[in-house]
Amino acid sequence: MNPKAFNAVLKDTITLDDRVWDFQLPNLPSHSVLDKNNLVKTIVFTTNADKRRQEIRLRLEPLGTNRAVTGEPPSRFLVVSALEFRPLHVPASVRGGGATSSGKEVKGTHPATARECTEYLIRLLRAGVRVQGTHYNFYGHSNSQLKSRTCFLFAASRDEIAAKVAALGDFTGMKTAAKMAKRIGLLFSSSRTVLTIDPARYLARRTRVVFRNTRYTPSVFQIRYRGYKGVVTVDPRMKPPGPVLRLRKSMKKFSGGNDYSFAVVEHSKPFVFGYLNDEVVILLQFLGIEQSVFLRKQQEHFEFLSAAQVDPRSAFRFLSYLNRPDLAEKVLMTSLEDVRPVWSHSLGCYSAYATPGMS
């Protein structure tokens, strides 16, 4: 069986009484198979309102690259995803909980509110998860993973994980837990690690930057280096034997750490679809762009997203913007309906993410 197709139910019912998450799966691929195929065990919480069911499933998904997982085999990690974990609103008569004399529903056995769902996840992350006898404890998450309710667990004790994080940077000076989590999250940002800091052309070779079958040198890189994060641009005036990288003090988010890897998160590309975030909108308004211009752009964007659901040409453009040429090609070669189940969810998530604070 193809290990990428593995999909099993760990718990077919989620209850408020759950305190231990210990699972044994006789047909789960071995650690050597996971490491060979770069697959990570992923626990997914799902809610099916029609069937009035909340489940915990286990899938195998490709392990993305970031500084926090570099150097460790994929089998030592466990990803928890609760993006689809929502309250289960079931009538009291169905839940067996009964009703009060006033007719109000009483508390049932399933997480029926957002708070109960959150508390359930907190208990799981504090207790950890055991799969095939291996205990996984909370490790961390990137800022984008936090928004999608996803995090990493690691097969080690809490003390060992704390020491591992401490080796990646000095976070002791952070005054709040939220700031510390945000800074540690930089280590989990998806990136390609480059071994040494060399000129931009070397980065282009290491990251295999290609456009229309031709390798080119981007002018801008989004980077992570030790405690630094930000965007750097190629400056032809900086030539050896002088410095090849200059970083601003404001780019430094934390100090220390034994990881000297230079990681590229993203780079400039031809014809890439972009969007306006809050910072860019404020800057453009300060430069004299009227609000009506942004509102018109927003309305045009909404119309484009609506058209992408029914018009093949708009769907092709949208999928190209998302860097999904495989799906865009299927739209042309087969039909829009053949790819709709795959990308309709991405369309909804993108429209919510790409237009923050614009209404």
TrEMBL record:
Leader sequence segment: none
Enzyme Commission code: 2.7.7.48
Any GO BP annotation: siRNA processing
Catalytic activity: RNA(n) + a ribonucleoside 5'-triphosphate = RNA(n+1) + diphosphate
Assigned keywords, A-Z: Nucleotidyltransferase, RNA-binding, RNA-directed RNA polymerase, Transferase
Gene Ontology MF annotations: RNA binding; RNA-directed RNA polymerase activity
EC class name: transferase
Record domain RDRP core: where: 114-197, 204-330
Protein family per UniProt: Belongs to the RdRP family.
Listed name of the protein: RNA-dependent RNA polymerase
Organism encoding this protein: Sodiomyces alkalinus (strain CBS 110278 / VKM F-3762 / F11)
